[in-house]
Amino acid sequence: MKIFKTPAPAMTAVLLISLLLTACGQARAPQTLSAASPDFFGIGDNLARQLINNRSRSLNTNETLIFTTIVNLNNLDQTSKFGRALSESLATRLFKYGFHVIELRKAGAIMVKDKTGELILSRESRKLGKEQKADAIVAGTYSLTPKSIIINIKLLAAGTQEVLSVAGMELNRSLNINYLLADGNGPVMDSVSGDEHF
Question: Do 135 and 98 meet the contact criterion of CB atoms below 8 Å apart?
Fold first, then answer.
């Protein structure tokens, strides 16, 4: 019986080719944002990292953040399934990055517009900040165009009007996003649930 042995160099080449083919088969394509099925946790993570990276001074992950529901820019007392879903995903990501998050549903109670239309903190927000011993407040809005939705998030010092950081992005509208926006005529939840801690 003849036993054929593959020469060592040839065997090495075969093994290398096999490994390369296996790696190529397992490699994942770069993650892209699906317009049809938006990845809210991916969007939330993107916005959370922007807030952390854009701050002039480093964020202390032991900080306590008051988090409000993301609302319609044209009506601060109005949100939608989209605003609530995005709020939940952003709050979850901030929590996973180590922040203590207190969720307050009623954004309109702490955010007001000044004469120029700029969003600022209300007097009530400063009171809430002291009561909750919060370091900062995360508030955000979305605005609609015929083809997209523009999201803007601000990290504001709880005791002042200082803007500590900002984040934003624009998403293409899709059937799923439009579905989540469809209940936009409803008000933000009235309860200010300061006991909802992440």
Answer: no
